Amino acid sequence: MQLSNIVTIFKKEMTDTLRDRRTLIFMLLIPIVAIPLLMLGLSSLMVSQITKVKEETSEIVIEGESFLPEELRTMFVEAPGLSIRGEDEFEGRDLMDELKQGNFQALVVVSDGFSSDLERENQTEIEIFYDEAELKSEFAEDKIRDVLSDYKEQIVQKRMEQRDISTDILTPYTTTSQNVAPLQKIAGKEFGAILPYLIIIMCFMGAMYPAIDLAAGEKERGTLETLLVSPATRGEFVVGKYIVILITGIVAAFLSLGSLVFSLNYMVEDLLKGMSKMLAIELDVHTIILVFLIILPLAGIFAGVLLSVSIFARSFKEAQSYVTALNMAVILPAFVSLLPGVEMDYKMALIPVVNASLIMKDAISGSIEWNYVFVALLSNAVLAAVTLVFCKKWFEKESILFRM
Amino acid sequence: MIQAEKLTKVFKDKKRGEIKAVDQVSFTCEPGVVYGLLGPNGAGKTTTLRMLSTALRPTSGTAIINGVDVAKEPQKVRSQIGFLSGDTGLYGRLSPREMVRYFGKLYGMSKSAIEERTEKLFDMLDMQDFADARNEKLSSGMKQKVSIARSVVHDPPAMIFDEPTTGLDVMSSRTIVQFIQRCCDEGKTVIFSTHIMSEAMRLCDKVGIIHEGKLYAEGTVHELLEKTGTDNLENAFIKIVGE
Question: Given this model, what pLDDT does residue A185 score?
Fold first, then answer.
C-alpha cells in the first residue's frame, strides 16, 4: 500500500463528499441548526407547560363543608390557586365518580364530628382524594395539604399557649443538609443522559451518506470499474474512502456536542431560571479529550460497517435500505444512556455503542472509571480494525463487486 | 499487443451452479489494428474484456498485454491499458479537469506530466470551454469526451472498449467512433466489443465471433463473409453460430 495513493484518493473523495448536499445536511446543518432548535423547543415547551399548570386554579369540592371550623373554611377560600365548588352542585351524583372523570381536581372529606373533636382535643381525621395521573390534580392535593398543615400548626400553637409551654420544645434541634456533589455531577445526571445518545446518533448519521456514496455510489455511477483497472490497489481505495467516512462521522459528532453544550448553556438557561445551575455543563479539556477518544474508535466501527454494507449493495437505493435497518441497531444500544440504573461493568464495556454511551455519560458527570474506559477503547478499536479488514476483503471479492 | 490464451471464467451461482461465462477463448490483437469482439448480449464479451482489463481474474488461462501477464502481474498491466465502456460514468461533483487529474495521479504521473497531458487532450477533444464546469451539468456528448480523456490520460499502448456506444446518442457515439479510429492511427492496440453488426463492419479490421462463452470464428470482415458465403456480418454471424 502506498501512502501517496491513499492521500490522492482521500483528497478526491473528501472534495467530492464536501460538495454533496446530503452529506452537508447531515454533517453540518443538523448538528449546528437543528439540535439547538430542538433543545430550545423542547425546554420552552416543558417550561410553559409547567408554569401554565402551576398558575391555573384547581377546583376542589369539600364534602361536609359545613362541618369545617370557620377559620379553616376561610383559609380554604383565601388559598391562592384553589377554588371551592359547592357540593350541592353535584346533588345526587357520586362525588368520587365526578373526580375520576376530572370534573374537579380534588375531593376533601370532612366528618361531622371534626370541629367538636378538635375542640375536645380528640384526634380526628380529614381525607383528601386526588388523581395522581393528572398533573393538575396533584397540584391541588399539594395546595390542600399546605392549607391543612398551616391550620394544624395554628391549633398546636394555641393548645401549647393554653398550657404555657414554649413551642421551642417541638424543635430540639434543627437540621440542615448540604449537597456536596460538584455541579458537573448534577448536570451529568440530568443532561448527561441525553448528550451521549444524540452524539452517537449524529456520528452515525454524519457518516451515513458519504459511506453510501463512496461505494454503492461508484457502482451506480459506473465509475467502479475505472477504479478497479487503475494501478492503485483495492486496499488503497478502501483505506482512502474509509478515512473520509471516519472524518465525517467524527465531525458530525463533535459539532453536535458543541452545539448541544452551547444551547444548554446559553439558550435554554434563560428559560429554566431555577435550574440554570444544573444546566451549566462545563466541559473541560479532559472531558473533551475523553469524548474524542471514545468517538474515534466508535466512528471507526460505524465507518467500517457502513462502508462494507455500501460495497455489498448493488445500488444507492439498496444501500439506503440496509442503512435504515442499521440505524435501528445503533439507536437502541445508544439509548442505554437514557435508561436509569444501567451501570457500567466489564460486560457492558465490551459491547460497542453501549460502552461509548455509558462512558460519555460518566465522563460528563465527572465520574470516570478508567479500567472500563480502557477495556471499551480497546474492544472498539479492535472491532473497528476488523470492519476495515472486512471492507478490504469485500472490495477485493469479484462476487461482491459484480453482484448479479 | 494483446494475446488471450485460453481465457476462461467460471462464475458460481447458487441456483444454477457453475456457469462458464468464458470458455477457453484465445485471440491476438496487433497494434494499429481494431479488433472487434462480436456477439449477442450474454455471450461473454464483457467478461472477456474485464479479464483483459484486470477487473476480473481469469479462472484459468491468461492474457499477455505488451509482454505483461494479466493473471500474474495485474498491477503492472493496469498502466498499459485504457478502459472505456458505454456505461462508464463520471463523478458528477467534480469538473473534467479534476477528474482527469485524479486518474493521472492514480496512474502515478507527475504533476507537470498531468498538466501537459490534460492541456493536450482538452485541446484535441475540444473540451477547454467546459473543463472547469461540474460534470453533472454537462451534456451527454461532453460527458463522453471527459470519459475519453480520463481513459487515455496515461497514454496507454492498449485500449479496451466494452460496448462503448451502447446507450449513447448519435453525436456521442460519433465522438467515440472517431476516437477509436484515432487510437488505431496512433498505433495503439485496440480491442472493442459490440453487439451491433454494422458498427463492427465499419470499424473493425479483425473480428472475433463470440457466443455462449466460446470464440466461434475469427478473421477480417472480408474473410468471414467469404467463408460463410454471405454479404453481411449479420448473416455470417447466424451461419457461424447456427452451425
Answer: 60
Task: Inform me whether the C-beta atom of residue A232 falls under 8 Å from chain B C-beta atoms.
Answer: yes
A121 lies in some domain = yes
Contact A228 B54 (CB under 8 A): yes
Final residue before a domain boundary, out of A136, A165, A194? A165
**pLDDT confidence band for A165 (50 / 70 / 90):** confident
Interface probe with A: pick from B15, B56, B79, B91, most Cβ of A within 10 Å: B91
Calpha distance A95→A87 (Å, rounded): 8
Query: Is residue A197 within 8 Å of residue A335, measured between CB atoms?
Result: yes
Range of the domain at A293: 3-42+184-401
A170 domain residue, yes or no: no
Instruction: Note the pLDDT tens digit of each residue in A367-402.
Output: 788 999 999 999 999 999 999 999 999 999 988 888
Question: Is A201 near chain B, with CB under 8 Å?
Answer: no
Question: Do A247 and A271 belong together in one domain?
Answer: yes
Domain count for chain A: 2
Are A38 and A61 members of one domain? no
Interface check B9 vs A, CB under 8 A: no
Residues of B in contact with A230 (CB under 8 A): 78, 103, 106-107
A54 at interface of B, judged by CB pairs closer than 8 A: no
Amino acid identity of B50? R
Most A CBs within 10 Å: which of B90, B106, B134, B144, as the mutation test of the A interface? B106
| Interface residue B12 vs chain A (CB under 8 A) | yes
Could you say which of A132, A165, A198 is where a domain stops?
Answer: A165
Q: Give the CATH number of the domain where residue A136 resides.
A: 3.40.190
Write down the mean pLDDT value for chain A.
86
Q: Which is it for the CA torsion B173, B176, B178, B180, positive or negative? A: negative
- Co-location of A218 and A344 in the same domain: yes
What does the buried/exposed string (b/e) look like for B28-59 if buried means 16 or more CB atoms within 10 Å of the residue's CB?
bbeeebbbbbbbeeebbbbbbbbbbbbbbebb
Q: Where along chain B do its domains lie?
A: 2-87+156-242
Q: What pLDDT band is residue A288 in, cutting at 50, 70 and 90? A: confident
Question: In this complex, is the C-beta atom of A228 within 8 Å of any C-beta atom belonging to chain B?
Answer: yes
Q: Does residue A315 belong to the interface with chain B, where contact is any CB pair within 8 Å?
A: no
Question: How would residue A183 be classed by pLDDT, with cut points 50, 70 and 90?
Answer: low
Interchain contact A233–B (C-beta under 8 A): yes
Please check whether residues A233 and A97 belong to one and the same domain: no
Q: Do A362 and A251 share a structural domain?
A: yes
Q: Are A248 and A325 in contact (CB under 8 A)?
A: no
Residues 47-66 of B with CB under 8 A from A: 50, 53-57
Mapping DSSP to helix (H, G, I), strand (E, B) and coil, where does residue A353 land?
Answer: coil
Low-confidence residues of chain B, pLDDT below 50? none
- Give the model confidence (pLDDT) of A258-286 as tens digits: 888 777 766 555 555 544 444 445 567 78
Q: Rounded CA gap, A316 and A218, in Å?
A: 9
Q: Which of A270, A222, A262, A297 is nearest to B83 (CA)?
A: A222
Which residue on chain A is closest to B95 by alpha carbon?
A: A16
CATH class label, B2-87+156-242: alpha beta
Q: If you measure CA to CA, which chain B residue comes closest to A220?
A: B89
Grid coordinates belonging to A269 = 438557561
Does one domain contain both A62 and A30?
no
C-alpha cell at A204: 452515525
Structure confidence at residue A279 (pLDDT): 47
Same-domain check for residues A208 and A341? yes
Residue contacts between A and B (CB atoms, under 8 Å): 70
pTM: 0.81
